[in-house]
Each structure stands twice: as C-alpha cells, then as structure tokens.
Design a protein that fits this description.
Elements lengths: L10 E5 L3 E6 L5 E6 L1 H11 L4 E4 L2 E2 L2 H12 L2 E3 L4 E2 L5 E6 L5 E6 L11 H4 L2 E7 L8 H12 L4 E5 L10 H14 L2 E5 H7 L5 H8 L6 E5 L5 E5 L2 E5 L12 H15 L12 H9 L7 H18 L9 H5 L1
C-alpha cells in the first residue's frame, strides 16, 4: 500500500497575514525578518511535522520573496492566489531592554478570493486564523466567510492577537471577535488582548466566560506568568518555563502552534476524513469533566516549551519537533 503524499493528506489551513518584521533593538540596530502571527503559526506547525497551507497576501517584492523562501524551506505551502503584484506589509517591532516588543504597522489586508477557494486549499482537517487578518477590512469579511464554510468539515482555532493601532474601538471590534470565538473549538488569547477588549474586567473571568459560549478550550497566556486553560467545568494553570529571554517576538505564535500540534496528534482536533470534523466531539467529550484530560495537559506543556525556546533566540523562530523532544 503506497504512502499518501503530504499534499494528498488533509492539512491544516492557516488564514492570515504574512509580513516582514523590522526589528529595532534598544541599541538602534535594525534588521528585517519574516513574520506575521498566522504565518508564524503555520511555520511552527510545519516545523512540528504537520502538513500546512497558508492563505495570505504576499507581495512580489524582495520582502515577499524572502517570506516565500522562509516559509517554503520549512514546508509551508502558499495557496494559489496568495502572491499579489503589490508591496509586502511590514511591522516594525521596537524591542525594549527586557526583550518585550511594541509594534508599528504598514499593513494592507485584502485576501485574494482565489486564496481560500477549495481548489486552492485542498482537503482541510483544521483551520486556524486570527490577528490582523480576522479584523482588518476589507479582508476580514472573507476570513469570516472561510471559517463559516470550513467549520462543518474541520475544527477551528482562533487567536485574536489584537493590534489596537490598526483597529477601531474595543466596543466596535468586540462583536466580530466574539463571533469568531463562538465559531472556534480552541481559542488562545493574551491577558493584554482581553484587557484591551474588555476594559475593567478580569481577563481570567472573560476567558472562563468564552469557554462557556462555544469553544471547548480557551487558553489565556500571561507572559512571564505562564498561562491558564479554561473549559466549561474548570481551569488549569500552565507554569512558565525559566529561560534566558532574548526577545518575546513570536512566542505567543509558537505557543499556539505547539498547542495545536499536541491536540492534532492526540486526535482532539482535525477532520476531513470519514466524517465531518470527527475530533470536535472528541475534544468536547474530553473537556466535559472537572479534571483536565492528560492529553490536553500534555499539549499545553508542549506549547509552553515551544514558547520558551522561541523566547531564547531572536525573532519569530519556532522550534522543530526534534528540539522539543530533547
């Protein structure tokens, strides 16, 4: 019996921005590296051994060429229509002395229709989206439509990864975020995301509330404080892994990729084979008790290790599976 090629296997489809991160260090030095939150998640998943397609908008310029080469070398396939005759978007990350980053953006997001056409995306087991792409018009409407279309046959994950400089007010953005949360099986959000989106509310209370409105699992990341997972019947702390921090660029995306990788390998995410999104029910059952299942706890630990390794080196450079297994 011949082995199926990766292109023939149901894959994870990531929808979202790929851009160039211009890193400006405390010493004034600048460097340009590939980035974009969804692209980083796609990269992380591919490096962890998963077939991944990325529906995005990349220019035909030099920045775009570097991005395509960077993603392709790790096995990420761009869907047809993702390369456009325009400039590639950029994000300038200004690094503080502690390695934390603040951002300035020059972003254009208008997802080409062909990029999410079923002929381009193939058979999808899981769909991930978030960040700028899920909220910035005009492309955000096509992202939401793609999530709705994919959900009957695939599981869904979402990371708001909000960039307020590109958005309206919290009150204006909240309904779209909540709609995507309700459509998702797994959601990851930072305490900064929820602090901006729900001013005056405890981010942990917001995450616990989200876990009762649709997703089977909601993970709140707390920076140096680790993370906490929420499901309908409880919560579970994820301790931080001590590491000498070079910078935090891409750490949240590496956490997301590690979490999805663990859940996919455990059979708690995925679809596209014998029945519509069969893993959705598995994840729902697994998170139906007071105690977090071992497979989910292991996935969270994998996510924490992936984030720690990314913090230990410059830029968004998620680890490979061999590094996590050492």
């Amino acid at each position: 019996m011949s082995r199926r090629t990766p292109a023939a296997e149901p894959s994870t489809l990531v929808i979202g921005e790929a851009l160039t991160d211009i890193l400006a260090g405390p010493d004034g030095r600048r460097s340009a590296v590939p980035g974009g939150s969804p692209a980083n998640v796609a990269l992380g998943l591919a490096r962890l051994g998963h077939p991944v397609r990325l529906a995005t908008r990349v220019g035909g310029d030099e920045h775009g060429a570097v991005l395509r080469r960077h993603l392709g070398e790790s096995g990420v396939l761009l869907t047809d229509g993702s390369v456009v005759d325009a400039a590639t978007s950029t994000a300038t990350a200004v690094l503080g002395a502690d390695g934390a980053a603040s951002y300035r953006f020059d972003v254009r997001w208008s997802l080409p229709p062909a990029a999410t056409d079923p002929a381009a995306t193939g058979r999808i087991a899981h769909l991930h989206t978030g960040s700028i792409a899920a909220l910035l018009v005009p492309g955000a409407a096509r992202v939401l439509a793609a999530v709705r279309a994919a959900r009957p046959g695939a599981t869904v994950s979402y990371d708001p990864n909000l960039r307020p400089a590109l958005l309206g007010t919290a009150a204006q953005e909240r309904p779209r975020v909540e709609e995507l949360v309700a459509l998702s099986d797994v959601v990851k959000a930072s305490d900064e995301d929820l602090g901006w989106l729900y001013p005056g509310y405890d981010p942990a209370e917001v995450a616990a509330g989200w876990a009762r409105t649709g997703p089977s699992l909601v993970v709140l990341t707390l920076g140096a404080g680790g993370a906490r997972a929420f499901w309908r019947h409880g919560s579970h702390p994820v301790g931080p892994i001590p590491v000498e921090v070079v910078d935090t660029v891409g750490a949240g995306d590496a956490f997301m990729a590690g979490l999805l990788s663990g859940l996919l390998r455990a059979g708690l995410l995925g679809g596209g084979r014998d029945s519509p999104a069969p893993a959705r029910d598995e994840l729902r059952v697994a998170t139906g008790a007071d105690r977090l299942p071992e497979k989910v706890a292991e996935s969270l630990a994998l996510a924490a290790r992936a984030a720690a390794l990314t913090c230990a080196r410059p830029g968004a450079d998620p680890p490979r599976r061999s590094e996590l297994e050492q």
